[in-house]
Design brief:
The complex is a heterodimer of chains A (316) and B (225).
Chain A lengths: L3 E4 L17 H13 L7 E3 L6 H4 L5 H12 L4 E2 L1 E5 L4 H20 L5 E4 L21 H13 L4 E5 L6 H7 L5 E8 L23 E6 L5 H19 L3 E6 L16 H18 L4 E5 L8 H13 L2
Parallel strand pairs in A: 1-2, 1-5, 5-10, 6-7, 6-9, 7-8, 9-10
Antiparallel strand pairs in A: 3-4
Helix pairs in contact in A: 1-9, 4-5, 7-8, 8-9
Chain B lengths: L19 H11 L3 E5 L5 E6 H7 L10 H8 L9 E2 L10 H11 L3 E5 L5 E6 H12 L6 E2 L2 E4 L4 H11 L4 E11 L2 E8 L5 H9 L3 E2 L15
Antiparallel strand pairs in B: 1-2, 2-3, 4-5, 6-9, 7-9, 7-10, 8-9
Classes of the chains: A alpha/beta (316), B alpha+beta (225).
Chain lengths: 316, 225
């Protein structure tokens, strides 16, 4: 069995989005319950959150944005930049704990205390832009982790795989010009889904040209198309890039029973995707992979999906 | 929506004695396809398109030609020999709608915009109109499109707009396809939100049919086959 870390902290529940918001604390409770009920907790290395040092957040986000976000929280404002981004007084601290927890997780992998890890965090991150909150996201968790991996631990090439059903516009834009971070995303076609980016022809720019890859999937499609497209697009991309560390932007909202999208993946397909990522991590990155929760809104389905996901990570 | 708000105002122009190689290089350098030809006082006398230049040039397949000698000859070919003289123009008081319908009708890529005195004021091309439409569709903003089937009767759009507004969701744009099927229209609101599940449910509860995204289309204009 692999030494799999599990980042979870009850303080992640403190970010309140009000009633009727899909990105609710219930999601994380469901995730935890899935792992607990399956008896996995004793077999996992628990990781507790610590607030991120601001200097790492500044590697990705503009200082003015960080301060604006903190100030909005202190003033008790209930949204940031778009009405989608509902928040409370604890949101800023929670977002700092999400980033900090993930950086702690990276440290444990790099110090060889664990092999890989799943990070059950809120708020999610992949829509967050350098200077703007978007799509329920405030800090781009995965992007800050990638910079930390490179600058603190001397890893050159970080590969990000984003299989949330929505395109990670923030992550793409942050690394668009950078050939040292590869961004691969498979998602519902942007003409039909939020946020409207992630088209096939978006492939990075300047030195980063060829280090961004988008696989848009049409509404109504599911397992068959994901299977073919991941084999066709992701596998050659990572063979070319040879990532030394893999970060997964893990979303479960492409599930057939998740009504945030028109993509119809089965529960089993998520297991298959994670097996592929584990294979890639073993092949190129000495098994180093950290999965970070993004979306996934079906409270009924999340426990099983997350249990399966973590079990794949634990399997040698 | 007058055209002088959407047209390109700083137009690159040439005189009638510009030679074909100069005109070609200007187009290449500035990524443009139309060069208005003007008198020194700014009066429009013609237009040169990239196609005019291509058909006036010798074939690139004739590489056995002595290039330098050919270039020398081409340098003596001035644009007044192959430009379209007195091209179709529009006044700055035309609207975007006028320009769209004319471009479709006349099958041209751009219109020089000239004032009453015949002086060039700008140029409006298909690209300018596309830019305007990307802007009004708001697809540069994060959001997503819905497709809703409604009865072709008064008041339907109001109900939809009210329902969405009550959820504090902003509109990027709203498209209406008037001829979806007999007695029906399709309404496509582009909503600036990721929070789509509950608005979908609300609309369904109100009795609306959400269209299968794979069935969406907009183009129902009669085509000239």
């Amino acid at each position: 069995m692999r030494r799999t870390g599990f980042l979870y902290d009850e303080r992640y529940l403190l970010h309140c989005t009000g009633s009727c918001h899909p990105e609710s604390p219930e999601r994380l409770k469901a995730a935890y319950k899935g792992i607990e009920d399956a008896g996995l907790l004793p077999k996992l290395t628990r990781i507790h959150a610590v607030p991120a040092q601001q200097r790492w957040v500044e590697k990705v986000h503009h200082i003015n944005y960080i301060l604006r976000f903190e100030e909005a929280c202190m003033m008790g404002m209930d949204e940031l930049d778009y009405p989608d981004n509902q928040m409370c007084r604890e949101t800023y601290d929670t977002a700092m704990l999400a980033v900090g927890g993930i950086l702690e997780t990276v440290k444990m992998v790099m110090e060889d205390k664990i092999d890989n890890a799943f990070c059950a965090v809120r708020p999610p991150g992949h829509h967050a832009e350098v200077n703007k909150a978007m799509g329920f996201c405030y800090f781009n968790n995965v992007a800050v982790a990638a910079r930390y991996i490179q600058e603190e631990w001397g890893i050159e090439r970080v590969g990000i795989v984003d299989f949330d059903v929505h395109h990670g516009n923030g992550t793409q834009h942050i690394f668009e010009y950078d050939p040292t971070v590869y961004y691969y995303s498979i998602h519902e076609h942007p003409s039909f889904a939020f946020p409207g980016t992630g088209r096939e022809f978006e492939k990075g720019a300047d030195a980063g040209q060829g280090y961004t890859f988008n696989t848009p999937v049409l509404p109504g499609q599911g397992d068959r198309e994901y299977l073919d497209l991941i084999k066709q697009d992701l596998l050659p991309a990572f063979e070319f890039f040879q990532p030394e560390f893999i970060l997964a932007s893990t979303g479960f909202d492409a599930h057939a029973e998740d009504d945030m999208s028109d993509i119809k993946l089965s529960t089993e397909m998520f297991t298959w995707i994670m097996k592929v990522l584990m294979g890639l991590a073993d092949k190129y990155a000495e098994g180093r992979i950290i999965s970070v929760l993004e979306g996934g809104y079906s409270i009924q389905r999340l426990p099983e999906l997350i249990k399966n996901h973590v079990e794949v990570m634990m399997t040698p | 929506m007058f055209i002088d708000r959407s047209m390109t105002k700083r137009v690159l122009t040439i005189g009638k004695d510009t030679n074909i190689l100069e005109a070609r290089d200007l187009m290449k350098e500035h990524h443009i396809r139309h060069l208005p030809v003007v008198e020194p006082d700014g009066t429009l006398i013609g237009i040169v398109t990239d196609r005019d230049i291509r058909s006036a040039m010798p074939s690139i397949l004739q590489d056995e030609l002595n290039c330098d000698a050919v270039d020398d000859k081409l340098r003596k070919v001035t644009v007044d020999r192959f430009m379209t003289p007195d091209p179709m123009t529009i006044p700055p008081t035309y609207t975007i709608q006028d320009a769209l319908l004319l471009i479709q009708d006349k099958k041209v890529g751009a219109f020089p915009v000239v004032d009453d005195a015949g002086k060039l004021k700008g140029i409006v091309s298909i690209r300018d109109l596309i830019r305007a439409f990307i802007n009004v569709l708001n697809i540069g903003e994060p959001g997503m499109l819905l497709g809703i089937l409604v009865e072709d009767k008064v008041g339907q759009l109001k109900q939809i707009v009210d329902a969405i507004t009550e959820e504090k969701i902003a509109f990027g744009s709203v498209l209406v396809s008037r001829h979806w099927e007999e007695g029906k229209r399709a309404v496509f609101p582009y909503l600036l939100t990721n929070n789509i599940a509950r608005i979908k449910k609300k609309l369904r509860d109100m009795g609306y049919t959400l269209l299968d995204p794979m069935e969406w289309y907009l183009d129902q204009l009669p085509k000239n086959e």
